[in-house]
Amino acid sequence: MANSSVWFWVFFAVVMLFGFVVFRGAPYVPTQRKYLTAAFSKLYQLKQGDVLVDVGSGDGRVLRLAAPIVKRAVGYELNPALVLISRLLSRKQQNIETRLTDFWLAKLPDDVTVVYAFSVSRDIKKLTRKIEHEAGRTGHDIKLITYGAGLDGRQPDESYQAFKLYIVHPLQPGSESL
Ligand SMILES: C[S@@+](CC[C@H](N)C(=O)[O-])C[C@H]1O[C@@H](n2cnc3c(N)ncnc32)[C@H](O)[C@@H]1O
What we know:
By secondary structure, the protein is of the alpha/beta class. It has helices spanning about 1-20, 35-40, 60-65, 80-90, 125-140, and strands at about 50-55, 70-75, 95-100, 115-120, 140-150, 160, 165-170. The chain binds S-adenosylmethionine (SAM).
């Protein structure tokens, strides 16, 4: 009896951990590795100097794929269980960092060059504003790679299957956001 109640609470905690994030962003659905590999070869080839950020990094697979090439790979993830898994799986790659943080509230690294977002249409306006804000704050272009929903009313600079690449420029004061 006591045993089954422990399992009930474990199950409840896991459902809560994975469930509550839907109020803040996309639920956990990992990008398949073969699609990621193809996107980083056909859509955007990562460079040595790149600092890649995954907004909602899940188990950290995007970070691990990028880490052997880029300078740094930083993930923001709201689910503590996924942060733990990501840190465990990435422990041998020194240039990976997984932050237990809500990315909407986070200041991205000043040297960020590439942002990966497994995006859902509900959040696309917010995501656009966030990346435009970060490009303005850092004063340089940010390459935004979306998987799933693309930015409203804006043609991607490149696309490959469900991936889209947008070069987001720092906005001039007074210019219109999307
Ligand atoms: C669709 S999954 C993508 C995981 C990973 N990027 C990939 O492509 O395999 C979205 C992830 O974002 C996380 N997430 C959702 N909202 C978030 C937020 N506001 N801040 C940080 N992480 C968030 C979820 O917990 C989930 O792990």
